[in-house]
Amino acid sequence: MLGKLTGWDDTIVALATPHGIGAIGVIRISGTKAIDIINSLFPSKDLSKQSTHTIHVGFLKDDDKVLDEAVVSLFKNPKSYTGEDVVEISCHGSPYIQEQVINAIVAKGARLAKPGEFTQRAFLKGKLDLTQAEAVADLIASNTEASRNTALHNIRGGFSVVLKELRDQLIQFSALIELELDFSQEDVEFADRSRFYELIHSAKKTVVELINSFQLGNVIKNGVSVAIVGKPNAGKSTLLNTLLNENRAIVSDIAGTTRDTIEEIININGILFRLIDTAGIRESKDVIESIGVEKSLEKMKAADLVLYLFDVNEETQSTVEASLLQVQSSNKNFIAVGNKADLIGEDVAQQKFSGDGVLFISAKKNAHIDLLKQRMTDKVIQGTVSTESTIVTNARHYQALQEVNKSIDDITAGLYNHITGDLLALDIRRCLHFLGEITGEITNEDRLDYIFSKFCIGK
Fold first, then answer.
1. Which of 19, 282, 330, 396 is spaced 20 to 30 A from 114 at the CA atom?
2. Phi, then psi, of 228 in degrees rounded to 5
3. The domain that contains 279 carries what CATH number?
4. What dihedral angle (degrees, nearest 10) is formed by the CA atoms of 415, 430, 124, 13?
5. Is 179 part of a structural domain of the chain?
6. 445 part of a folded domain
């Protein structure tokens, strides 16, 4: 429980900006001795007498040695990120200067912070819950508009609000059930069962929506791997270059030019697609090419999406259908793309390959590439990404929500079967337990250490 974890009273320090040479470097200090330590290094002003949220300029000195001229930002508890006294030093971006300042702070009684320890302290001080803390790490790691907006939504408490409303309602009903147990011999009913049916039905809908959002959340957070597969000379490398708008892969008329997989990343409508150009799939006596074909098949099986590319001039409908059956057996999420349609005309290509689903393009002429990008996006997100709705992006949350869902099913079954109040209360407590694990109301030190160890040092 949190009460066992809140006894931290030491002072920590870390570089909050990336290592290396830059214009400035920010050093963050948090803890009970933060102001006293910096006061001993900053003779310009007595920071203990200054107001919170103020900025001060002066020289940092270690005894008579001038370390740097710096800007010192002061945040007094509890109005700081960690809820403790926090001082941030903006010094010059020399790694040597930063090291000297940090060493002086450590010598005065601070210790080097562990990864994520500032945010962990913010969590332990009640400045934010665990979902918001994890969203901080997601925001730092965000590399698209969609991932940034999703992380910001959760930092603002979007996910927390949904869970809190659900948890508060369950706690209220659980308390009434527990009260009934105290008066069990008098056969009284404090909890309105009809109202509880409505609550559980609403909770089930909310939890299922959150669970179902994880597929989209995983796409937003981690991106989508896309294997471009097909026979030799279908134009896979040309398509890769066209999608990237640069000559990344070698292109030639010689079949089998691509011997190994080439991977590049492209941002389409806020989603990262990891494009994998594979060797052409065919039987070959060439040892190197055969290895490349094996790798292509492996990439196709592991990909989130497969673009099966074929040359409309060389293939027939029967050969394409046979190849698509092979693709479908390995990966059901695919798009059939007919390339080089400009050579025979799109109308002829559509007549030659009847049926819905095939997208005709010309990778070389950049024809219908925007349509292909849109179809790729539609395949993986199946709708518009709404940053105002809560989207689950964390595997830990997803697993806990599955347990919540099972508990809700048990509660529902218990209500319909008219089980006793003590058994119903057990199911409710189990549901509350897993909701509390998501927000951090129920946790332990080992789990917290694991979660925050994945943060960067200084945050």
1. 396
2. -95, 110
3. 3.40.50.300
4. -130
5. yes
6. no
**Structural domain for 340, as ranges:** 223-381
Dihedral sign from CA coordinates of 194, 199, 201, 204 = negative
290 plus 170 within the same structural domain: no
Same domain, 268 and 361: yes
DSSP annotation string for 232-269:
TTSSHHHHHHHHHTS--S---SSTT---S-EEEEEEET
For residue 456, the 8-state DSSP code is: P
Examine the domain organization and report whether 333 and 260 are in the same domain: yes
Q: Does a structural domain hold residue 45?
A: yes
Query: DSSP for 335-346?
Result: EEEEE-HHHH-H
Structural domain tally of the chain?
3
CA atoms within 13 A on the CB side of 143: 12
Q: Is 159 found in the same domain as 234? A: no
Domain match, 24 and 8 both: yes
* Amino acid in position 88: E
The H or E element spanning position 302 is: helix 287-302
Instruction: Supply φ then ψ for residue 410, to 5 degrees.
Output: -65, -40
Q: What are phi and psi of 244, to 5 degrees?
A: -80, -15
Q: How far is CA 110 from the centre of its chain?
A: 32
In a domain, 93, yes or no: yes
Tokens (6 digits) for 299:
């990439």
Give the pTM: 0.69
Same domain, 281 and 370: yes
Phi, psi of 225 (to 5 degrees): -90, 130
**What CATH number is attached to the domain comprising 211?**
1.20.120.430
Last residue within a domain, chosen from 359, 381, 403: 381
Do 292 and 276 touch, CB atoms closer than 8 A?
no
On whether the CB atoms of residues 278 and 228 are closer than 8 A, the answer is yes
pLDDT in single tens digits along all 459 residues of the chain: 444 444 567 999 999 998 888 899 999 999 999 999 999 999 989 999 999 999 999 999 998 899 999 999 999 999 999 999 999 999 999 999 999 999 999 999 999 999 889 999 998 898 988 888 888 888 888 877 778 888 888 888 788 888 888 888 888 777 767 665 655 555 555 456 677 778 888 889 989 999 988 888 888 888 888 888 888 888 888 888 888 886 654 444 444 444 445 788 888 877 888 888 776 554 444 444 344 446 656 767 778 888 888 898 988 888 888 878 877 776 668 888 999 998 988 888 888 887 668 899 998 999 999 999 999 888 887 655 555 578 888 888 999 999 999 999 998 888 788 777 778 888 888 988 998 888 887 766 776 777 777 777 777
First to last CA, the chain: 23
104 and 177 in a single domain? The answer is no
- Residue 38 DSSP class: H
Amino acid present at 314: E
